[in-house]
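Ticket #4471: structure export looks truncated?
Reporter: QA, pipeline team
Priority: medium

Steps to reproduce: submit the single chain below to the structure queue and open the exported record.
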Amino acid sequence: MITAIIADDETPSRERLRELLSRFNTFEIIGEAHDGNEALQLIITHKPAVAFLDINMPGMSVFQSIPSLQNPPLVVFQTAYSEHAADAFEINALDYLLKPIRFERLEKAVAKIIDKQAALNKGKQAPEEISAKPADHVSISIGGKTRLIPVKDIIRISMEDGFCYIHTLQEKLISDRYLNFYEEKLGAAHFFRTSRTDIINLNHISVIHKEFQGMYAVELNNGTHIDVSRRKAQQLRKIVDF
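Actual output as written to the record:
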């Protein structure tokens, strides 16, 4: 079975597509979303092989979010408007379906999915392993290109609303990985996890503010303040003299 998600802000459209896909006995629908944010969260969390995405959903734009993913799924767009076709193929969408979706047209899209998935499975490499040596850069996929972000430029890595972000002085970039990955990849020499939602670069600390009841706040070079609990502050003191 090929894992898939369906994202559309119209319930009847999701129901129709789910019913049409069930006729193929090929797909396992592992999630449904009604806006762009939910769709991206499903893709990051469940890593489906295929995403059937409506183009005109509320929330995060699929044209911005899909290229930001390190390992995006195969994407099939569906919409009532044909003017987005060029944009869809610009981000390497596998197919583009106009609503109302006809079964005969969906058959052609499914054939493409099966062929593409077979090719991907044939050439699949071993799972990514985290090197024991701390990295000197991290990679971010943006607009179909892979950007290499020097570790020294990273100020902070955060989890916000279920999404992971890399912060530099100039940019805030979304990642489809999680904090645990970066915590292991970057090592403890220059990075410190202040909480379940933040990792900071020790080299970018500008001020440490003493708060109340043993609490502290770390101020970073970009002006961001990160709260540090008493327990975490004790750990930080072993690394930074304050």
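Status: closed, not a bug. The export was complete when the record was re-opened. Leaving a note from the reviewer for reference: The first helix runs from residue 11 to 22.
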